[in-house]
Specification:
Elements: H1 5-21, H2 25-28, E1 35-41, H3 62-70, E2 72-78, H4 84-93, H5 122-128, E3 132-138, E4 182-186, E5 194-197, E6 200-204, H6 210-228, E7 234-239, H7 262-283, E8 290-296, H8 327-330, E9 331-337, E10 346-348, E11 352-353, H9 356-365, H10 381-384, E12 395-399, E13 405-409, E14 412-415, E15 433-436, H11 452-467
Parallel strand pairs: 1-7, 1-8, 2-10, 2-11, 3-4, 3-7
Antiparallel strand pairs: 2-9, 4-5, 5-6, 8-9, 12-13, 13-14, 14-15
Length: 501
């Protein structure tokens, strides 16, 4: 088969990239700077992986199960928001998304990048430690388009194509301007047919082919690294396109989930893509010196009860799904495999946020960063090593699609809005929801009226973390905009927001 233009470019780029990027285990023994692969699945719920909720998870996920068996499962891990754009900002910066101009909804592209040019990212942290950095997949943090004069995309067909910008369009402020040496991917799911390499749209691709193209590119890069056998380690960020809409499993995956639905087949295919990358690491002798992390960006986009008749609960025991302020929107499956450091088959119920990856790796590298960097990141390196942490995350601020807030402290969670399932609430319940998450993981019993002092304490905690511009020790910082935790003013553009793009 004749190679596509992007396939040829990928081989050339991989060869150039690998010339700088990987060490030889045989020649150099254990490397103090292990390779890192970070998977970030799109819209996969807490209950989708069988190891996380074996009672009600019916879609086969053998490769993710294996990753759980070989690493540590975090059962109380959260993204900073219940939708894509804000959770990705927080992951890459170690800073809560609502401190930026982006107060609700998701990015559509065509605006300046949400990550400021002078802000350190997870990628630039690795780059500062001598890593080569590459990203494969969905960006969704805005960037600008410089479209060639007269260029046009073909006719849009949602079932086959999902065009963004014409071939030749230049991206001046995308991933390669924010710490990544190489980028192959797209902005968001409604533009995934416009495949971008580094800073240019280079090819149109069918939606059904995106998952395998990305997996092949990651595997090809790993293969080339191992073949050249150089010393520099790599950081690969792989924000997958699945199982987000468009739900497009390949023909060979249709019906293989055991449930008669394209979505569950897509989940099974997602697990297989993860397995292909894990196999590439093992085949190339890189497994023992590569940290693998898997998480998802928010909950499942399907209603929580969609597959209950088939015995499959996409959100596991949690209430609700993507976009929600309830835990089904932002509590996610999180796995870390680190041979020789993380105990195989271990579990942690420590509260963590995806913002915490920055501080965790900074601690590993003994890298000291400025007060205006990763303001909401708390490291969990000691937990990975099986040691009780001196400082652990005790609080977290949650955010939903409409920009509404909740705050967690220990086992208590306060939501700054009434329960939409309850009519005629009185007292504090007319304004708040308060749950004890250890005893009520399904968020069914509102204790606001019974525990008014806890409501007051948590409101003050949230107000302070907003006002301080940070939730970690250090000098106070400025948020990028005024933050309204009560959402007193309804945004005129809120009706135009589209949560599933």
């Amino acid at each position: 088969m004749k190679a596509t233009p992007v396939a040829r470019r990928c081989r050339r780029l991989a060869a150039a990239f690998s010339g700088l990027a990987v060490f030889s285990l045989a020649a150099h023994g254990a490397n103090p700077k292990p390779n890192v692969v970070l998977f970030y699945a799109d819209d996969m719920g807490y209950g989708e992986i069988q190891r996380f909720h074996p009672e009600r998870s019916k879609v086969p996920t053998p490769h993710l199960n294996q990753l759980c068996d070989e690493g540590m499962m975090f059962t109380d891990a959260h993204t900073s928001s219940s939708v894509c754009t804000p959770s990705r900002y927080a992951l890459l910066t170690g800073r809560y998304n609502w401190r930026t101009r982006h107060q609700s909804g998701v990015a559509q592209g065509g605006k300046p990048c949400l990550i400021a040019a002078d802000r350190m990212t997870l990628a630039s942290l690795f780059k500062a430690q001598g890593y080569q950095t590459a990203m494969f997949g969905k960006w969704h943090l805005d960037f600008q388009y410089q479209v060639p004069k007269g260029a046009r995309t073909p006719e849009y067909r949602a079932d086959v194509w999902n065009y963004g910008m014409p071939v030749g369009t230049v991206i001046p402020d995308g991933p390669v301007s924010r710490g990544f040496d190489y980028f192959l991917g797209f902005h968001h799911s409604r533009t995934m047919s416009s495949l971008i390499e580094n800073d240019t749209v280079v090819e149109y691709i069918k939606c059904v082919d995106v998952m395998q193209r990305l997996a092949d590119a990651v595997i090809g890069t790993i293969d080339e690294h191992a073949r050249t056998g150089r010393e520099t380690p790599f950081f690969i960020y792989y924000p997958m396109n699945s199982p987000h809409q468009p739900v497009v499993p390949r023909d060979e995956w249709k019906g293989r989930s055991g449930i008669n639905n394209p979505y569950t087949d897509f989940v099974a295919q997602t697990d297989d893509a993860v397995g292909q990358v894990l196999k590439a690491l093992e085949k190339n002798g890189l497994k023992e010196n590569t940290i693998v992390l898997f998480a998802t960006d928010n909950g499942c986009h399907k209603p929580a009860d969609t597959f209950l008749k088939d015995g499959h609960a996409v959100s596991g025991p949690l209430r609700d799904r993507k976009t929600s302020i309830h835990d089904g929107g932002h509590r996610v499956p999180f796995i870390v495999r680190w041979p020789g450091v993380v105990e195989a088959g271990s579990r942690s119920d420590q509260l963590v946020c995806m913002t915490d990856l920055f501080a965790t790796f900074a601690e590993f590298f003994a890298f000291e960063y400025a007060d205006d960097t990763a303001e909401d990141s708390i490291g969990f390196l000691s937990i990975l090593k099986g040691v009780a942490p001196e400082v652990a995350r005790g609080t977290i601020v949650h955010h939903d699609f409409k920009g509404r807030f909740a705050v967690r402290e220990g086992d208590w969670k306060l939501i700054l809005r009434p329960d939409d399932k309850v009519k005629g609430a009185t007292g504090l319940e007319a304004k708040f929801q308060l749950y004890h998450m250890k005893h009520d993981i399904a968020e069914a019993d509102n204790l606001a009226n019974e525990t008014p002092e806890k409501v007051d304490t948590l409101v003050k905690l949230l107000e302070k973390q907003v006002a301080d511009g940070r939730s970690t020790p250090g000098a106070a910082q400025q948020n990028d905009t005024k933050v309204d935790i009560w959402k007193k003013k309804k945004r005129a553009a809120s009706k135009k927001l589209k949560p599933h793009e």
